[in-house]
Design brief:
Rossmann fold, single chain, globular, 14 helices, 8-stranded mixed β-sheet, 6-stranded parallel β-sheet, 2 domains, alpha/beta
């Protein structure tokens, strides 16, 4: 018998860079759940930049529309929200509007609320009308460290929310330690995983993208949102200058509202190549054309809790990895080369360039670090913790 699940995300469905939220919704639908994906409430204050204004206008329009059917058993709902949730009156109005949107969807689709899966705690006012049987909190980042998020409000809301949940899933051991100190509810470690079949295509590719053909080797790759609160840009700059013969390839765009002078300085270096956004479907082709995957992550309150999705994506593609020593990757030190400064990166990259071999086979990846493996764990937890409707 299929179950109905409402997933409250911190990202819009159509974001260029998909993360856990969209992929978990897709995985649940593949497993027979009927899924309503509720897009971001807007946890950070909007800026005056073009992207934020465009998103706000889009949300005002899509918020007036019914939930959009993406595929069989998966719908996306855009909340009709007014910015500045910190204002109690605005927050109350937003919750009333969203509750009405969900109620209309449920009535039209005969949709129950068997399970709630959320990536933030700001759903408490919705819990009574939803009457969810079980509530799962999936923590994938330290959101309080994201620029323009009201950290105090988030922490206060989260503390109250802990009494309402059935269980937590976290993507890193630092998050597990933190939340186990915060609640008596079960906390399950579930690290980020990878679409092994998709990224393993890089191992067999015989061609390379046209925009890579004129870039010399060796090529060092970082891809994803170029966020200055995640990436140690100074380390990248030093690395590029210490080895001008090495080519650093950056795929992705700066985060919304960011205009980093450090990244602007990096663009002036002849051996650093900014390719811009590239579609997820084409990433294996680019991964097949590089020599080393680099994770030059900064050491700060955000990165100390994060688990970079691209870590296992690099490995599935057969690309050796050099990374700074963030805590989340410590259990996997035997899979990558560790370095914490420019000199260390140079030495580690020189070593992996000589070895030129993957740390994991495709079969090992599929067995331990695939979406199939993660969802098997998730289903096991759901079956053991879901509250009986009759209780």
């Amino acid at each position: 018998m299929s179950q109905d699940l409402i997933l409250f995300a911190t990202a819009d469905w159509a974001e260029q860079y998909w993360t856990n939220k969209q992929r978990m919704a897709d995985q649940f639908s593949q497993l027979g759940f009927r899924v309503l994906y509720v897009e971001s409430f807007g946890l950070r204050s909007p800026g005056a930049n073009k992207k934020d204004i465009k998103r706000l206008l889009r949300r005002l329009w899509t918020g007036l529309l019914p939930a959009k059917k993406i595929k069989e058993d998966l719908w996306v709902l855009s909340p009709l929200v007014i910015p500045h949730w910190q204002n109690p009156r605005i927050a109350k109005l937003n919750y009333c509007l969203l509750s009405l949107q969900i109620k209309i969807f449920k009535l039209f689709h005969l949709f129950k609320t068997d399970l709630v899966w959320t990536y933030h705690p700001f759903i408490m006012p919705l819990l009574t009308p939803l009457q969810a049987r079980s509530i799962y909190y999936h923590v994938v980042d330290n959101i309080t460290a994201v620029p323009n998020v009201d950290a105090q409000l988030y922490l206060e809301t989260e503390k109250k929310f802990m009494s309402q949940i059935t269980a937590l899933f976290v993507t890193s051991f630092p998050l597990k330690v933190y939340y186990e100190s915060l609640t008596q509810k079960p906390v399950y470690y579930s690290p980020n995983v990878v679409d092994v079949e998709h990224f393993a295509k890089a191992r067999d590719s015989q061609s390379e993208p046209t925009d890579m053909r004129f870039i010399a080797r060796p090529r060092l790759l970082y891809y994803g949102v170029l966020s200055d609160f995640k990436i140690d840009v100074q380390l990248l700059n030093a690395l590029a200058q210490k080895r001008p013969e090495w080519q650093i390839v950056l795929i992705g765009e700066e985060r919304e509202g960011q205009n980093s002078p450090l990244l602007q300085a990096l663009k002036k270096l002849s051996n650093v190549h900014f390719l811009g956004y590239r579609a997820y479907a084409n990433l294996p082709l680019y991964l097949s054309a590089v020599d080393v995957g680099i994770l030059p992550l900064d050491d700060n309150p955000y990165t100390r809790f994060m688990f970079p999705m691209k870590f296992f994506e690099f490995l599935a593609a057969g690309v050796p990895v050099v990374s700074t020593g963030i805590d989340a990757l410590k259990p996997y030190q035997h899979f990558f080369a560790l370095a914490d400064d420019a000199e260390g990166f140079v030495a580690a990259i020189e070593k992996v360039l000589l070895e030129k071999k993957s740390k994991l086979t495709v079969d090992e990846m599929e067995k331990n670090y695939s979406w199939h493996a993660r969802m098997a764990q998730v289903l096991c937890v759901l079956n053991s913790t879901a509250r009986d409707v009759s209780q």
